[in-house]
Amino acid sequence: ATKGKAYVVYDDILDAVKACSELNGVQIAGRFLRVSYHHEERLERAERELALQEQRLQDVTERVVIQNILDETE
């Protein structure tokens, strides 16, 4: 699955605060939204951390699937 990104610019800071608090963590089409303020200097670090988290999740998922297959064949 591809990872999508969107950037939204709000005229009113209160609307931006509301969007972050109400939309962060919401699940859409089986995926969770991550909503945060954009900080250019933090973007690269956040992308590395996200990639690491996604790899850890993939590793765990693969182990669970393999374990389930082995349990069913014994």
TrEMBL record:
One of its GO terms (molecular function) is nucleic acid binding. The keyword Coiled coil applies. Residues 36-63 form a coiled coil. This is RRM domain-containing protein. It comes from Kipferlia bialata. The keyword Coiled coil applies. Keywords: Coiled coil. Gene3D superfamilies: 3.30.70.330.
